Amino acid sequence: MAAKITIIGSINMDLVTTTKRFPNRGETLLGDDFQTIPGGKGANQAVAAAKLGADVSFVGCVGDDAFGDTLIKKLKSQGIFTGNVEPVTDVPTGIASITVAEGDNTIVVVPGANDHVTPEVICQNEETIKNSDVLLLQFEIPIESVTEAIRLANKHGVKTVLNPAPVRSIELSLLEKVDYITPNEHELNVMLDTEEKKEFYQQYREKFIVTQGAKGVVYVNGNQEVNVKGYQVNVVDTTGAGDTFNGGFSVALAEGKSVEEACTLGNVAGAISVTQFGAQTGMPTRKEVNKFLESDGD
Ligand code: RIB
After folding, report:
1. 3-state SS assignment for residue 118
2. Ligand 1 pocket check for 184: Cβ under 6 Å
3. pLDDT band at 17, cuts 50/70/90?
């Protein structure tokens, strides 16, 4: 039976402009291309996990508009359960204005309906959370809702993975309740904004799975720091790479695999995903991951 993952988070339409370089402040540039592509950190992670073989339920909110319809259809087409996605009237579906240039990107998110994923919505989904092997969350919905979801997962003994993106300051009490936190190096620095949190990090290093892009992932097992290798690939677009890692990491964890195996699945899936344009477009299937591993990324 496939591992069950519930992902609670954002769902956006990505409005993606490609240009040769990033514009300077106050400057108007002529771009090369424009596309609307399904995105949102929550939805991206749901698609990544579903493609890797998990049984995925997504909890989130869309507006009662064309973007909302398209995005739900896209999740359904990946076999994701969307019965818990609430359409909200008089609020637009979330969007992300993305500029891709110089092998990198900038992103501005307007949350819209994502702000309507309230603690009440989370409570309505207690059964879904209870029936999961892993609950995966990010920070594009209100923090009170993330806190409530983690409380319910703890209540039912469900493992939790928190991807702290976009990064913000986190209460120590929330960090304590999460099983795994998956910041990149920049996010880790921002998160550890008090001496108390820095001490917590030193004391509970095994909770922190620190991603370093192509350099791989660092975590601590007992007293030993482990570096799980990353992969050098032909990078087309890094949008959604972190989401793909989190989807893969959570799938392996839900299957009862070790943290090292979970990091490897996340790393390989993330590496493959950046070889294509768009957040969800390049996310691999399990078969593609296995093939990549057989050739060791060559
Ligand atoms: O992580 C990438 C995602 O961040 C994009 O798809 C965009 O929607 C923003 O949420």
Report:
1. coil
2. no
3. very high
Going 133 to 211 to 221 to 227, the CA torsion angle's sign is positive
Which residue minimizes the CA distance to atom 2 of ligand 1? 240
- pLDDT greater than 70 at residue 297: no
What is the crossing angle of helices 241-254 and 41-51, to 10°? 50
The answer to whether 198 and 192 have CB atoms below 8 angstroms apart is: yes
Number of other CB atoms surrounding residue 155 within 10 Å: 11
What's 274's domain CATH number?
A: 3.40.1190.20
Q: How many domains is the chain built from? A: 1
Cα gap 189→208, rounded to integer Å: 12
Residue nearest atom 10 of ligand 1, based on CA coordinates:
40
pLDDT digits (tens, 9 = 90+) for 168-200: 989 999 999 999 999 999 999 999 999 999 999
List the one residue out of 47, 270, 56, 9 whose CA is nearest residue 163. 9
Amino acid residing at 44: N
Q: Which member of 32, 243, 296, 298 is catalytic?
A: 243
Nearest ligand 1 atom to the CA of 94 is 8
97-113 tens-digit pLDDT: 999 999 889 999 999 99
Catalytic residue at 243? yes
The one-letter amino acid code at 130 reads K
Tell me the residue range of the domain where 177 lies. 4-294
Is the CB–ligand 1 distance for residue 15 below 6 Å? no
> What are the strands, taking DSSP E only, across the chain?
4-8, 12-18, 33-39, 55-63, 85-88, 94-101, 104-110, 134-137, 159-162, 180-181, 210-211, 217-221, 224-228
Rounded to an integer, the average pLDDT of 222-236 is 93
Tokens of 153: 């997962």
